[in-house]
Amino acid sequence: MSDGPPPLLAVADALDRVLRGLAPSQTEICELQDVRGRVLATDIAARLSLPPAAVSAMDGYAIRAADCQAPGASLTRIGESAAGRPWGGSVAAGEAVRIFTGAVLPDGTDTILLQEDASAIDETDGATITVNEVPRAGQFIRPAGLDVTTGDIILTAGTVMSARLIALAISAGHTEVSVWHRPHVGILSTGDELVPPGGTPGPGQIISSNAVYLSSFVAACGAVPVDLGIARDRPGEMLSCVRAAPVPLDLVVTTGGASVGVHDHIVDDLSASGTELGFWKIAMRPGKPLIHGRIDDTPLLGLPGNPVSSAVCANIFLRPAIARLSGGDHRPQMIAARLAIDLKANDRRQDYLRATLEYDPQGQAVVTPARKQDSSMISIYAGANALIVRPPHDEARQAGDMVMVMPLDPLL
Amino acid sequence: MSDGPPPLLAVADALDRVLRGLAPSQTEICELQDVRGRVLATDIAARLSLPPAAVSAMDGYAIRAADCQAPGASLTRIGESAAGRPWGGSVAAGEAVRIFTGAVLPDGTDTILLQEDASAIDETDGATITVNEVPRAGQFIRPAGLDVTTGDIILTAGTVMSARLIALAISAGHTEVSVWHRPHVGILSTGDELVPPGGTPGPGQIISSNAVYLSSFVAACGAVPVDLGIARDRPGEMLSCVRAAPVPLDLVVTTGGASVGVHDHIVDDLSASGTELGFWKIAMRPGKPLIHGRIDDTPLLGLPGNPVSSAVCANIFLRPAIARLSGGDHRPQMIAARLAIDLKANDRRQDYLRATLEYDPQGQAVVTPARKQDSSMISIYAGANALIVRPPHDEARQAGDMVMVMPLDPLL
Predict the structure, then answer these.
(1) Confidence of residue A257 (pLDDT cuts 50, 70, 90)
(2) Of A103, A307, B269, B359, which has the maximum CB count within 10 A?
(3) pLDDT for the residue A330
């Protein structure tokens, strides 16, 4: 006789164990235009300074401040400097060069006289320019290297590339960067009760949605999903599905097969294939059972068969696993939010409540748990935009209390 | 003589005008596995109920509550119902069916006796089951249609599809849906000062980063970018680049060509090509000049040539434009946030300050503007995760005041 239920594995411990065996495998050189969402494998140093030379920040005249000490001073226009068409000469006392925003500052000049602070008799060289407002010496000049200086580290290894970071790298002289390989993730459904999408479920059957969900999830996380089909509840079938993968896999994800029922063979298959084997009961809801092991040296993560449990576990375990395999950050982002309604005390499992996260007019995060939390209800999960994360044995909470929330990515 | 500067067009008015001429063009039927990020063209009704029949929510025994009124009651196991393998018979008084989570409730039963609340002599039919804890009548049963009922509208037209919404649609019996066509967006850089990525800038030249930025931006917004190259500052060149597009375009985006310098020919080209022409000075910073018109009946949006101005305008105008062409929502999301530092009074232009948005331990949005707001600094924009939006003539603000913020998408 035991004194209570057997100990459950804490979520954080399970995640640590899942991540421990994972590392990014190899790097590749990619054109910058193709790396949105990819993770940098190396630091990136600027090859160019931005701007490469001092430039004008405004439209006007490049002048010498010493020539413009009083209103009414006059200068002679001797040329023009435009973006892409610098003026190559040198400017002497009493001379001015017409200049436009972004154009290189001509030698000899030190200040921009705004066009609205001057009068020109016409837009030709030789024209007389009259100073109406005395400029501040050095005004409206962007010095060379203001933005970026050659050799500066502008991006560090591990950065997830966005469109704007791509623009920065290109501006600083790069066309390609070293990024981590996109991991290949095999996705295998298991269970006799599953009917492929589009099929007609017979009595007791359900349509298999997990594989398509996980495929879309995996792709949105930046990995390459590999469909391994549906393994029926027969010894060896799961093993043969994985071994039939058309490409080498960095990770295998299964759904189903971990219940206490007598129809599941994943555990036997795993034992037959290899080495470590974890068949974990995790202190979380939904999503208690999780399988962790290796098939022929490929890491395996076995998610629950219930669609909502599977989706929650994908956010908690699979997303960090893919991030680590991709060379990136691997901890789910959490923020605090104010509870909109009361919650009862929690039991010994970490609870992931399907919820709606909003920001009130004062910029305060406010979270409302869905009224029903039945883990069989896909519609509730599909409509949520966040999960409230309640630690084990969390005390009863009242509306207005703070709770921790994991926002769900809009596309996941 | 005028009494002041000429009136500027308000951002909201400019956006209204940009969106007015845009509509999604056509729909297509796509497999659900391919529609992440796409916009539904029609409402979706469930084809199946979920669950299709009443099922057990737990592992245990399907029983008749009338048989289990007192501890010690005994029942005879007559069969087993597992997920995917329902038990086809009918249960009479004194009988029980072994059942697992998700399995169909056998005819004649009305309650689930938890396995931990019963003792079984063994796991075979004919075994005697003893009731240790009296079950509540009807407990642990998920009724048919609990999640979704056939005919329910589960998704509405205009919804952007996520992995979890795809899972819902598949579970409810769908394999494909009608989505709006992905718009084709032509991207054209203009300017003699531009060197293609990887080139070596000569005096006064800069590397063209806007086209790659916009290409990545457009793709992340769900549209198909079409590279139209770089148009040099010669009459007719821009027009011929657009007319050389390899596919029909739903929108043309240009950068550069709208300054007051004398080297720009976009406006002439636009006039030569067609009908309406807007050459707008917008009350915003960065990003004052914006061109709006049509080239041969294709809508055109002309963004500034400055990379930061171009990027800000892409968020303010191009993203909503693509969303509207894609059949989706088209207003930038704004939230309130608490200012971390003081800000001086604003002038007549709506200001978009590059900023860092964070959430404090109390779930309060806090925003810190970058120290430098020079619109030539790509590195500042690249490092920001939000824009503070200050309306024209906004008064001076102090640390702790609320301001409106537009979060920048992590991948844009």
Answers:
(1) low
(2) A307
(3) 72
B11-25+181-325 classified as CATH 3.40.980.10: yes
B27-50+147-180, what's its fold?
Molybdopterin biosynthesis moea protein, domain 2 (3.90.105)
Architecture of domain A335-407: Beta Barrel (2.40)
Please list every residue in chain B whose beta carbon sits closer than 8 Å to the beta carbon of residue A100. 259-261
pLDDT at position B319 = 96
- The pLDDT confidence band at residue B119, using thresholds 50, 70 and 90, is very high
Helices (H) and strands (E) in chain B, counts: 8, 26
Tokens representing B365 are 């949005």
**In this complex, which of B57, B59, B213 lies closest to A166 when CB atoms are compared?**
B213
Longest dimension (CA), chain B: 104
Residue numbers of A between 137 and 196 with CB closer than 8 Å to B: 142, 146-148, 154, 160, 162-168, 170-171, 173-175, 191-194
Choose from A61, A164, A259 for mutation: most chain B CBs within 10 A: A164
Domain spanning A27-50+149-180, CATH architecture: Alpha-Beta Complex (3.90)
At residue B5 the predicted structure's pLDDT band, cuts being 50, 70 and 90, is: low
- pLDDT: which is higher, B205 or B400: B400
- Residues A50 and A172 sit within 8 Å (Cβ to Cβ): yes
Chain B residues with beta carbon closer than 8 angstroms to that of A173? 207
Q: Would you call A388 an interface residue with chain B, using a CB distance cutoff of 8 Å?
A: no
Nearest chain A residue to B222 by CA: give it.
A411
Q: Which of residues 74-113 of A touch B (CB under 8 A)?
A: 81-86, 88, 100-104
Q: With a cut of 90, say whether residue B324 has pLDDT above it.
A: yes
| pLDDT for the residue numbered A2 | 45
Torsion of CA A204, A205, A211, A213, to 10 degrees: -70
- The model's pLDDT over A78-103, given as tens digits with 9 standing for 90+, comes to 999 987 789 999 999 999 999 988 89
**Does the beta carbon of A54 lie under 8 angstroms from any beta carbon of chain B?**
no
Residues of chain A contacting B193 with CB distance shorter than 8 Å: 82-85, 102
Tens of pLDDT, residues A263-280: 456 667 777 776 667 778
Judged by a CB distance cut-off of 8 A, whether residue A271 touches chain B is no
Is residue A262 scored above 70 in pLDDT? no
**Topology adopted by domain B55-139:** Molybdopterin biosynthesis moeA protein; domain 3 (2.170.190)
Percent of chain B with pLDDT over 90: 76
Q: What tokens does B91 get?
A: 């249960």
Q: State whether residue A207 is helix, strand or coil.
A: strand
A1 Cβ contact partners less than 8 Å away, ≥ 6 residues apart: none
The Cα–Cα gap between B237 and B132 comes to: 87
Q: How far is A231 from chain B (nearest CA, A)?
A: 13
